[in-house]
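User: I'm preparing a small set of examples for a lab meeting where we compare how different chains pack in three dimensions. I only have the primary sequence for this one, and I'd like the structure in token form so I can line it up with the others. Please keep the answer compact; I'll paste it straight into my notes.
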Amino acid sequence: MKSVIRFIIICLLFFSPIALYYSLKTFWLLKDDKYKLSIHGSEVYHAIDKSKKKTTYKKLILGDSTAKQFYDSEEKDTADFYALCCSQAIGIIGQYFLLNNYLNAGNRPDTVYLVYNPLSFADNLDQVYTYHYFLKPFYRSEYKPLFTQCARYQIHKIPKYWACQFPYILTSGWAPLIEQEQRGYSFISPVSREYLQKIDSLSYHYHFVFKILPSLTAEHWKSRIKSFNHQEFADYRFKDKLSAYLNQITYLPDSCFIDSVHLKSPELYRQAIDRKLRLR
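Assistant: Understood. Below is the structure token output for the 280-residue chain.
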């Protein structure tokens, strides 16, 4: 019995400083939201904060990381537009939340652009970065009323989804392994379908033009994109917009890309993208 007590005391003496260190570190990171600057997905937190500011801009650009190469939410905005582009891993649902924040702040854009890679629409809250980039920033009380049944169903499939706001997990680089499920669609996921329609509904309610534009795409993906099943959005109110989106894709040689998705030298194509958005 004495040996057991001695072992417990030794363990406490050994682990107590470690526990104290991590507790103090977590407290320090939570103070003034310091963790948002260093955690995976820091650009998402920046876009969220920025989406809640009152502005006078009439053109808003949303988008994934391919759009961020041109319209970075972390860079100073020009006189022409306000950018909230951050990451594909927040999904269309995250883009909707950013737009909803922007409108709730009293902003009234006349045009909202969604600049998106064709492959990004397939996100169904089931990828490796979902925990860091979507759950940690958005699985909070202010957004939970905006979750559809479909979105909640997907979230509840994620291991330890309920722990994403625990202080140590929120401020750390830890995330559970998420296994991507078998997908029964070629182009647009159920979650993307629902939240594109929600964005479209906002455009009617707040009287802005909603435009969906493709980012520059590698030739590598051309055959896959050509095989997309258009019936997946045939019942959309704005199905013509998605058909036009797919017909507007500009393909570039694979050698122009770092990883088959992001451009090596986006500055070479900035004016062409601006013209597509009619910003210049």
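A couple of notes for your slides: The chain has two domains: 1-33, 36-276. Confidence is low (pLDDT under 50) at residues 11-16, 18-25, 27-32.

User: Perfect, thanks.
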